[in-house]
């Protein structure tokens, strides 16, 4: 059974959820060489959500991403991103997000605020999320879906490497769009 987002009783969805890594994408987009975009994702992560539909501010989200799981579909680029120039995964093997606030901003929209830590630097960000639906899957699991994105400046997290281009500009943009397509399964 699938329920559309219109008229969802969010209070009825209150409970503990596990983010389903097989049906969730945590990705990013960066401009490359000033002419195109490179898209990537992290393939190894875990997350838990304690959703409170009656009192959204009581909602808590905790996500841990393994930096080594970065995947841009180019092995050489991925190794560079894992190294000291970018994520420095030997010293900082995980990227984390811990929520500090969650607010309903419209009938099907929410703002998730929390502390994002990359390379040992923690900054508060707010991610606007759209509720995408509720469904009971063929195995009897209640699933909820949310999508959102936010732009961060990678330099704010100590990710400063770049190369100047002969034609002007730089090889990698400072602004990175983080993208989240989340499917979470209600526990129990």
TrEMBL record:
InterPro entries: Lipid/polyisoprenoid-bd_YceI, TTHA0802/YceI-like_sf. SMART domains: YceI (SM00867). Residues 16-185 form the Lipid/polyisoprenoid-binding YceI-like domain. SUPFAM superfamilies: YceI-like. Pfam families: YceI. Belongs to the UPF0312 family. This is YceI family protein. It comes from Pilimelia columellifera subsp. columellifera.
């Amino acid at each position: 059974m699938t329920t559309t987002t219109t008229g969802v009783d969010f209070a009825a969805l209150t409970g503990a959820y596990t983010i389903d890594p097989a049906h969730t994408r945590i990705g990013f987009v960066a401009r490359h060489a000033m002419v195109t975009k490179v898209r990537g994702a992290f393939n190894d992560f875990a997350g838990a959500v304690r959703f409170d539909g009656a009192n959204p501010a009581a909602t808590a989200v905790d996500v841990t991403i393994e930096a080594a799981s970065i995947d841009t579909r180019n092995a050489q680029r991925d190794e560079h991103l894992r190294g000291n120039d970018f994520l420095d995964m030997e010293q900082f093997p995980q990227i984390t997000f811990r929520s500090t606030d969650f607010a309903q901003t419209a009938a099907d929209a929410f703002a998730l605020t929390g502390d994002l830590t990359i390379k040992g630097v923690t900054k508060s960000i707010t991610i606007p999320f759209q509720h995408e639906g509720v469904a009971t899957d063929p195995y009897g699991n209640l699933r909820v879906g949310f999508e959102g994105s936010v732009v961060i400046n990678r330099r704010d997290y100590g990710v400063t490497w770049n190369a100047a281009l002969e034609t002007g500009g730089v090889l990698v943009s400072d602004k990175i769009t983080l993208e989240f397509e989340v499917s979470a399964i209600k526990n129990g």
